[in-house]
Each structure stands twice: as C-alpha cells, then as structure tokens.
Write a structure and sequence with these properties.
- With about 400 residues, this protein is α/β, with parallel strands linked by helices.
- It has helices at about 40-50, 65-80, 90-100, 120-135, 180-185, 195-200, 220-235, 275-290, 295, 310-320, 340-355, 370-375, and strands at about 10-15, 35, 35-40, 55-60, 80-85, 110-115, 140-145, 150-155, 155-160, 170, 175, 205-210, 235-250, 255, 260, 265, 325-335, 360-365, 380-389.
- It has 2 domains: about 10-230, Spore Coat Polysaccharide Biosynthesis Protein SpsA, Chain A (Alpha-Beta Complex), CATH 3.90.550.10; about 235-389, 2-C-methyl-D-erythritol 2,4-cyclodiphosphate synthase (60s Ribosomal Protein L30, Chain: A), CATH 3.30.1330.50.
- Helix content is about 35%, strand content about 30%.
- The chain is elongated, with a radius of gyration of 24 Å.
- Bound molecules: cytidine-5'-triphosphate and ligand LQXTBERG.
- Cytidine-5'-triphosphate binds next to helix 3.
- It holds the Pfam family IspD.
- GO terms for molecular function: 2-C-methyl-D-erythritol 4-phosphate cytidylyltransferase activity.
- Keywords: Isoprene biosynthesis, Lyase, Metal-binding, Multifunctional enzyme, Nucleotidyltransferase, Transferase.
Length: about 400
Amino acid sequence: MSGLPDEVRVAVVVVAAGGGTRLGQAQPKAFVELHGATILEHALRGVFAATHPAQVIVVAPHALVARARAIAEHVAGVASGHLSVVAGGETRQLSVSAGLAVLADGVEAVLVHDAARALTPSALIDRVASVVLEGGGAGVIPASPVVDTVKRVDGDRVVEAVDRSDLVHVQTPQGFPRDALVAAYAAAGEDYTDDAALFAAAGGAVVTVPGEPRAFKITTPWDLNRAEHLLDAGARIRTGVGVDAHRYDDAVPLWLGGVYFPDEPGLDGHSDGDAVIHAICDALLSAAGLGDIGSRFGSAAPEFAGAPSEVFLRETLALVEGAGFRVGNVVVQIIANRPRVSARRLEMEARLGELVGAPVSVAGTTSDGLGFTGRGEGLVAIANALLAR
Ligand SMILES: Nc1ccn([C@@H]2O[C@H](COP(=O)(O)OP(=O)(O)OP(=O)(O)O)[C@@H](O)[C@H]2O)c(=O)n1
Ligand SMILES: C[C@](O)(CO)[C@H](O)COP(=O)(O)O
C-alpha cells in the first residue's frame, strides 16, 4: 500500500481477530458490547485520538471484516485517519502477520495493539510511538511493576517465593522499528505470547516505558465488568480549562468569539487571533484528555496562517465527539480593556453556541489597570468546558 501523506511515519496494527474463549460470550471478543459500543470501537477511539498521524490497520475475524470496517470508519470518520482492515489468522501471531502485510510505504514505526485493551489512553500510544521514532532501534513496551507477592507452585503446593523486584507486567501497544519487526516476524519459528518476545528471539533489544492501569486487557467476564464500571464512574462528566492571551495589533481586524468587531485593534496571531475560540478549543481538548490546540493543530502550521479560528473549533469538536463525548456547556471570561464585551455579548454567545452545539456563556472584565491587560497591551480569554459521555 502506498499513497499516504509523508508525515505518516507510524502504523498501529490493532489485532481484533481473537475468539475470546475466556470471556465466554457468543460473539468474538472485540465485537462484545461495552458501555454502548463494541470493545473494538472503544479501542479505536484511543488509537485515533493519538497525536501521531498513523496508518491504522484493524485485523478482524474473517467473517467480520465488513463489520470491523464499518466500526473503524465510524470512528475514523470523525477523527480522520488512514485505515486498512484485513482478516486475521488462527493465532494472535498470524493476525499480526496479516496486519504487517499491508503496511504502507513510508511507515517507520509499527505499534501492535490488542483491541482487547479497550480503554488504553491515547497518551500511552503516543508515549510508545515517540520512543520508537527517536530511533534507538529497540522495541518499546509498556510495563508496570508486579504488586502482588509471586510464588512458584507445583499444583497447589508452593515451591518457592519468586523475587518480584525485577518482574513487570507488560501491556500493548508494543512498538518496533518497521524493518526489524517485519524481519523478526518472517524469521519466527514458534509461537510467542507477545511481539516483544518474538522480536527479542530475533536478536532485537526491548526497552520499557511506564504502562497505564487503564490499558488492562479484557480477558474474563470480571475484566469486562471492571471496564463497564470505569466507564460508568469516571467518564460521565469531565471538565477542562483553556487560557489564551494575544497582543493587540492595529494592522489586523478583530475577530473575537467568532464575531467581527469593526473599529477595534485586532489580535496578533498565526491564525485570525480569536483568543476566545482558542481558549474554548483548549478547554474542550483538555476535558477530553486530547492534549491542546498547539499539539493538535501546530501553532505555526502553514495551512492555518490567517485561518478563521472556527476551523480549529470544528476540528476540535470532531475529535471530542470521536472520543465519545458531547459538550454540556462552555463558559468564557474575557479580561481586557477593549473591546467592550457587554455590547456584543449576546452575539458572541449566539455564534459560539451555534458552533459548539451547546450553551456558551461569555463574560467580560478588566484587570483594574494591572498587568498587560490593564496597560492595554493585549487580551486574555479563559474558558471552561463541561463534557459528558
Ligand atoms: N487469532 C487471534 C487471537 C487473538 N487476537 C487478538 O489478540 C488480542 C489479545 O488476545 P487475547 O486477549 O488472548 O484474545 P483472545 O484470543 O480473543 O482470547 P482468548 O485467549 O480468551 O480466546 C485480542 O485483541 C485478540 O482479538 C487476534 O487478533 N487473533
Ligand atoms: C500481547 C499481550 O497482550 C501482552 O500482555 C498478551 O501477551 C497477549 O494475550 P495472552 O492473554 O497472553 O494470550
């Protein structure tokens, strides 16, 4: 496969072709429902929310390739991405091989990820990808210390205590330099329980990065229940905050809160400088745990030069919705000597409400002569967003 943009240096192979015998449900594990969506959909939300642009390769049971494609396109459609869906094999290793067979030209780092780790935070995917892309040549796996005492047993008889000080639990995604991983898979003579073991057997070095509790694998009914409870409790309501400051610039028009202010100095910035919209984007992204406007859109990216900030807001909302959230409400406080917020507050609230699809309140204040806002050098906007799942 070729034809992906140059910046796509990462592929994530999401293996979802297992039967899930230990979960014991009628359908294959990745297609079991979890909190109103399939396990696969939850896993893909995390993958598409990662910052590194990636080719996402979903490996599904032969009979469910079309269903997996529909699920993946639904998630990718709102978050944008480069997607391939292929049929897996009898073992996890064969499924990974099927995914590796469709790697795009230009991919340098391959992450292999279990769909069964449905709640894996996108930050872990980015963490692994970043270390592989640094180019040390090693495989990179998430690991966490073993917290329980460990015993070696013979049947039900304890033989000895095992020193756990140098033991870790490992998770996915596991990341590798592309060529070395493909060569290791081609050379593999036996079945390994994870990609790092196969890579090490071919002579590759493997290093660890910190794992994440939420990246646990849904293996048994108890795990599925735990995932349900986590989604129930933790993610119903989330808040986020965003702050943006811009210097006044007489040479540019003033756009604030999506509204044009004639006869006012504009705001200096790479885009149209609409600090209110920028603060709202940061509030929404932080509430969803999706990073910030700079990491998402690039504060100097040429395509955003002079761009209306509504573009950032639309993209931000697509990301937030792709991560499974809807916006409850947004509030913004503008700290500035000018413009007078009260005169245009209702217009800003209406325009922003229309863009966000939820109530947006705008308030204004001054800093009582203090600081750069008080000296009339610039303007600050502070936004707070409430998201719900
Ligand atoms: N032939 C296989 C076997 C496993 N996997 C994937 O590998 C991941 C981890 O495997 P595991 O949790 O062991 O899943 P299952 O093999 O489905 O479970 P079980 O061993 O209980 O049957 C899962 O996302 C699973 O879909 C796969 O793509 N192809
Ligand atoms: C790859 C893996 O998820 C790493 O922890 C795991 O080894 C695969 O699943 P299994 O439960 O060991 O079969």
